[in-house]
Design goal:
Layout: E1 2-6, H1 10-21, E2 25-29, H2 33-84, E3 108-111, H3 113-119, E4 122-125, H4 132-137, E5 147-150, H5 166-174, E6 177-180, E7 196-197, E8 200-201, E9 203-208, H6 211-223, E10 227-230, H7 237-252
């Protein structure tokens, strides 16, 4: 998948690197062309380094499994030969070359906002709220009809206005199919490989109306090792934005925001209809 990213900051870095590592082609964009190009090169190297390490670990595990299997086969052969009263012989090695392993390392390129918008089959909006409108206008009509992943949070968490949802603004300005996602977690969470807590993969709620855009978002969530969760239509994106403003305020205050809700088993009987 080709992923264009409007932005070259922390979220673009964290998520874009992970998606490049998963094999996607990524283009980031920013106002400073030199800094954006430098960031793209760093992301490409990071994606390749992590992929190489994982590939080496996988090959080491595969070799260990193969050796164990061959040892077991040899032992079985020795027992069978002994029972027949003849000398045991070592069985021939089985298998041959191990399965080829995909590198999963995509390349991260740098471009302008317009170039990233045109490049992406899916485009992620990852700029600060203050520069959002200027960034969107710089893309012209390139985002019309495209799946757009909106990760933007309000600049002032204590003054979020639910009557002016960011996701709806992006949809209205661009004509794209917006999915609100990835806005509940600090950027360092998205650098985890994968984000798993107490053995449970992180769940990522998605709010959007277009099924093709939602399908693309689900793929990108799964590529991080996370679990996509249906959060409803785009009209519910303002609830997701408000949730971010609320829980980020709790975290800033030193509270464990995750602890405010009980696990599903203790949350009572629920159902639709």
């Amino acid at each position: 998948m080709r992923i264009g990213i409007l932005g070259a900051g922390g979220m673009a870095d964290a998520l874009g690197t992970q998606w490049a590592r998963a094999g996607h082609a990524v283009m980031i964009s920013g106002r400073d062309a030199a800094r954006t190009a430098e960031r793209a090169a760093t992301m490409t190297a990071a994606a390749a380094d992590r992929t190489a390490a994982e590939r080496a670990a996988t090959m080491t595990a595969a070799a260990a499994d193969r050796t164990a299997a061959e040892s077991a086969a040899a032992a079985e052969g020795a027992v069978a030969s002994a029972e027949r009263g003849i000398a045991a012989t070592t069985p021939a090695r089985r298998g041959g070359s191990p399965d080829s392993l995909a590198t999963g390392a995509g390349r991260v390129e740098a471009g302008s906002f317009g170039e990233a918008a045109a490049f992406g089959e899916v485009v992620m909006v990852a700029v600060r709220e203050a520069g959002l409108l200027d960034t969107l206008r710089a893309t012209g009509t390139a985002l019309r009809g495209k799946p757009l992943i909106d990760v933007v949070n309000t600049a002032d968490i204590y003054a979020y206005d639910p009557t002016r949802p960011i996701a709806r603004l992006i949809a209205d300005v661009t004509g794209g199919h917006v999915v609100k996602a990835f806005n509940l977690c600090h950027v360092d969470v998205w650098r985890m490989t994968p984000p798993v807590f107490d053995g449970r993969p992180l769940a990522v709620p998605l709010c959007g109306d277009d099924e093709e855009a939602l399908a693309a978002a689900r793929t990108l969530v799964a590529d991080l090792g996370c679990t996509p969760v249906d959060g409803g239509g785009l009209d519910r994106a303002m609830l997701l934005e408000a949730t971010a403003a609320f829980v980020i305020g709790l975290w800033f205050g030193g509270a464990d925001a995750q602890a405010i809700l009980p696990p599903l088993a203790a949350s009572g009987a629920h159902g639709r209809g």
